[in-house]
Every structure is written in C-alpha cells, then in structure tokens.
Amino acid sequence: MSEKILIVDDEESIVTLLKYNIEQAGFKTEVAYTGSEALHKAESDDFDLIVLDVMLPEMDGMDVCKELRVNQMDTPILMLTAKDDEFDRVLGLELGADDYLTKPFSPREVIARIKAILRRSNRVVKEDKPDAIQIADLTIYPQRYEASIKNEQLTFTPKEFELLLYLAQHKGKVLARDQLLSAVWNYDFVGDTRIVDVHVSHLREKIEPDTKKPVYIKTIRGLGYKMEEPK
Omega before 104 cis (within 30°)? Predict the structure, then answer.
C-alpha cells in the first residue's frame, strides 16, 4: 500500500500544488486547512507523514506539532513556513518536527524531503546488526526502532531514534556535531549544528536519570558528544 500523507495548509494554491505533486509521486493524501482540523485528522487516522504549515488559522502549526508529540504520536512531520528565521526553525525542531522547509519551495524538493524522511523512518536494518544493543539500563532494538529504560518503553521521533542508534553504535567514540549531521540528517541541515544539540537535549530528557548530570550521552567540550556506559 502507498504511504498516506496529511497536507496541512490554509492556502488553496499551496494545497493544490502539494496534493498534485505528492500524488504524482505515488502517495495517497488527505488535506486539512486549519490547525484544529489537522489535529483531529492526525489523531483519528493513521498517516505515514504530515506536511504541516506553521501559519494556520485556529491553531498554528507549532501548537499542532507540540500537541501531537505530547500525545505520544511519533508520525514524522515536515514543517513549512514563509519565514526564513533560525529561531522558528529551531523552535519547530525542539517541538518535535523532523524536517523544515522554507517557502517558496520547489515541488521536487518537497518530494525529496518526504522520501528522505520516510526512508529514515521505515528503513529496514541489515540482518548483520544485533537484535538489541544494551548499555546499562538502556536497551535499543534497531530492527524495531524501539528502546527502553529498565524495561519501560520510550517514545522517540524517527530522527531522535536515528541519533540515539548512531551514538550507541559508536559507543566510546567522540562524535563531532558535523559528523552527526552528516550521518543522521544527510544534506538536510548541513552546517546547522544547533539541530544536533536540540536532539541530544531531547534524548537526555528521555534516557538520563538527571539531565544536568548525564551519564549516557556526554558532552565533549569543543568537540561533540560521546555515548558511554554509565559507571
């Protein structure tokens, strides 16, 4: 079955452009024109990805994104905005968006971003990778895109899990921010290392006993991050 994508934008011309090109790429689509309608549809149906505009009536895209993540919905989100502002981009990522695209954009770029996000979230891990990676009380299941702490299930966005898995697979090694950008985000945010810091902060909130004194993901000042076995 084709992946189903929810398109959320209040501009009819943008919706028409996105719907046509996304369907031409082989995906199914649903449409919402307001934030509250988007939230209702996202919670009532299963979508593989949400294309979400920031500026929406009734409820803006940032609030929609935040509400979905608070409700433990990990559907990948590609945010759209007319603003070319780093604060808006970082805020969207802090709230749980997986990618960010500034208007005006080309349909080809939208499709490329959608496919890249879906590849990351649906990618089949090679058979030679272990069934589970154990680091103290943290257990990571690469093939299931799941992780737990002391057998308590954790919830991640696809990008958060990719970062956690990469850190775990390179346990004990110092990984530069640029290296993490290249490995986890590919071309999406080249040079914007703030995005790595945001996602590391998210991971620490979920796996660290004390975020102010992390024992799993250590900051190596001036270099990057390192996953360690807690002492």
Answer: yes
**Which CB contacts under 8 angstroms, 24+ apart, belong to 70-73?**
71/43, 72/155, 73/42, 73/43
Question: Please, which pLDDT band fits residue 87 given cuts at 50, 70 and 90?
Answer: low
Task: Answer yes or no: is pLDDT of 68 > 80.
Answer: yes
To the nearest 10°, report the CA torsion of 64, 67, 72, 75.
0
- From first CA to last CA, the distance across the chain in angstroms is 47
Q: What residues contact 169, with CB distance under 8 A and at least 6 apart?
A: 133
Helices vs strands, H then E, count in the chain:
8, 12
Residue 110 tokens read as 């939208």
CA distance 88 to 77: 15
Q: How many CB atoms lie within 10 A of CB 74?
A: 17
**pLDDT tens-digit series, residues 133-152:** 999 999 999 877 889 999 89
The letter for the amino acid at 110 is: V
DSSP state of 22: H
Three-state DSSP class for residue 39: helix
Residue 174 contacts residue 220 (beta carbons within 8 Å): yes
Cα 205 to Cα 207: distance, rounded to the nearest angstrom: 6
Residues 97-108 have a mean pLDDT of 86
Cβ atoms of 81 and 103 closer than 8 Å: yes
Give me the DSSP letters along 179-221: HHIIIIITTTTTT-THHHHHHHHHHHHHH-S-TTS-SSEEEET
205-216 pLDDT, tens per residue? 999 999 999 999
Q: Which two tokens stand for residue 175?
A: 């990984």
